[in-house]
Specification:
Blueprint (H helix, E strand, L loop, with lengths): L4 E6 L20 H6 L4 E4 L1 H4 L4 H10 L5 E5 L2 H6 L6 H9 L9 E7 L8 H10 L4 H8 L22 E4 L8 H10 L2 E2 L1 E3 L14 E6 L12 H16 L3 E6 L7 H13 L3
Parallel strand pairs: 1-2, 1-9, 2-3, 3-4, 4-5, 5-6, 7-8, 8-9
């Protein structure tokens, strides 16, 4: 049996998409519903910039189809400000903020490191060891949230489910066999990041799933993927699927409204004959 494939977009609320991907006149409140009818997953990136509210997670859950999946981007407070050190309080607030309300729609948690953060095996080992592996563990961590969060939390999962994590790095110092061994130990996916050559492209599969972020192969965040590039990505995803890996592929080339169309084009290739 092949792995599950999720192809989607990173975020969905972009003004330039209105009247191009989104039909002209579509109310902003209906954009997620519209997008979720055209892709089967979305990477939530607002959670990177600030803690979201439980009511938002609940609304997003209820707006999307039953078989939809959200990946959630970890907060930059943890990755860019704390730089993976002394993260107990930050993790508690993050997991208390409401994502557990997604239930079965909760996919991997994405952690993106800044380019200035270099490979430190001890630091990385400690951080990955502190991450929850199930929603019940996440709820236990969330219970330690700061008092200022009171009234703005939700961490009561209906069932105890596995929780996955993926790591995107942007320093060449991570091109180290020891890095991949640490990820394999913790079953954390090494993100395959297509960044027009700006940051490392690491292709090793280090977990029981694969995770790719397509930021643009020629111009970062801007260029679309042509037929040849999409064919190559389709072959890559088929390889993951045949090997039994679940895969999550998100297009982040949003500037010129390419992301949703490229995601749908890649999905069509995978839906068709191999």
């Amino acid at each position: 049996m092949g792995g599950d494939v999720r192809i989607g977009i990173s975020g969905w609320r972009y003004p330039p998409w209105r009247g191009v991907f989104y039909p002209k006149g579509l109310p902003q409140r209906l954009e997620l519903e519209y997008a979720s009818q055209h892709v089967n997953s979305i990477e939530l990136n607002g959670s990177f910039y600030s803690l979201q509210r439980p009511q938002s997670y609940q609304r997003w859950r209820d707006t999307t189809p039953d078989d939809f999946v959200f990946s959630v981007k970890g907060g930059r407070y943890i990755t860019h400000l704390l730089r993976l050190k002394d993260t107990q309080g930050g993790l508690a607030n993050f997991f208390a903020s409401g994502m557990l309300a997604f239930g079965a729609k909760l996919g991997p948690i994405l952690w993106q490191l800044p380019a200035t953060l270099h490979f430190d095996p001890d630091l990385l080992e400690a951080f990955l060891a502190s991450l929850p592996r199930t929603t019940a563990e996440a709820a236990t961590i969330a219970a330690g949230h700061e008092e200022r969060m009171t009234g703005k939390v939700w961490f009561q999962p209906d069932a105890d489910s596995p929780l996955r994590h993926a790591l995107e790095v942007r320093s060449a110092t991570f091109e180290n066999p020891a890095y991949f061994r640490i990820l394999e130990k913790h079953n954390v996916a090494s993100v395959v990041a297509d960044t027009a050559g700006k940051w490392p492209r690491l292709t090793e599969v280090t977990a029981d799933f694969a995770y790719a972020r397509l930021h643009g192969d020629k111009e970062l965040y801007t260029s679309g993927y042509d037929d040849e590039a999409l064919d190559r990505w389709a072959d890559t995803v088929r390889g993951w699927r045949v090997s039994g890996y679940d895969s999550y592929i998100y297009f982040d080339n949003d500037v010129k409204v390419r992301a949703p169309f490229d995601a749908m084009a890649l999905q069509r290739r995978l839906d068709g004959p191999s």
